[in-house]
Specification:
Elements lengths: L2 H9 L1 H12 L2 H17 L10 H36 L5 H6 L3 H6 L4 H12 L4 H8 L3 H23 L1 H4 L10
Length: 178
């Protein structure tokens, strides 16, 4: 990208920031989006058409960044909603049933990605809330909900692979290789 175009974009930083802030409602998010747009715009800038100004082109980049943000947020919201339904449908087992459940599950949880294993440990076993886990891990609550949802799915897959039909029928006396 030509230096005069970069200078023109940098000179309009505050105007761009205001444009984004009005659309996303948060100065911090607007600043993040603007930084991402600058990087993307400068790294991947297509040659401008003769009849197009750099400012008009960059506004198009910014509008696309806002749209992409909303799409990502929609995906996170759907994952969180799915997790909420999963939690609402879950029942709390009695202590004796909980103790009788296949002991290999704990070992299988250790084979998951470290962040999945940690999420399951802190939320499922230690009883930490998703919000508390998010704060502890330094991530957003939506991300924590998605992480624990994916961790449960990965663990479910591991249990089925390891325990086979025993897992499908809800084993209470684990006989699979511990």
């Amino acid at each position: 990208m030509e230096p005069q175009i970069v200078a023109q974009l940098v000179a309009n930083h505050r105007v761009f920031l205001g444009f984004l802030e009005r659309r996303v409602g948060s100065r911090a998010e607007a600043e993040d989006l603007l930084q991402e747009a600058f990087v993307k715009g400068i790294d991947h800038a297509a040659p401008l058409r003769d009849d197009e100004s750099a400012i008009a082109w960059f506004y198009r980049v910014l509008r696309n960044a806002v749209i992409d943000r909303e799409r990502r947020r929609g995906t996170q919201d759907r994952a969180l909603e799915s997790f909420a339904h999963e939690v609402a449908d879950a029942s709390v087992p009695s202590p004796d049933v909980k103790d009788a459940v296949c002991q290999c599950v704990r070992a299988l949880a250790g084979t998951l990605k470290p962040e999945y294993a940690e999420a399951l440990q802190r939320i499922e076993l230690d009883g930490l809330s998703v919000q508390s886990f998010a704060a502890e891990a330094g991530i957003e609550p939506n991300n924590a909900a998605v992480r624990v949802h994916r961790a449960r799915a990965a663990l479910r897959k591991q249990v089925l692979a390891s325990c086979g039909t025993c897992a499908e029928h809800g084993c209470r006396d684990c006989t699979c290789g511990r």
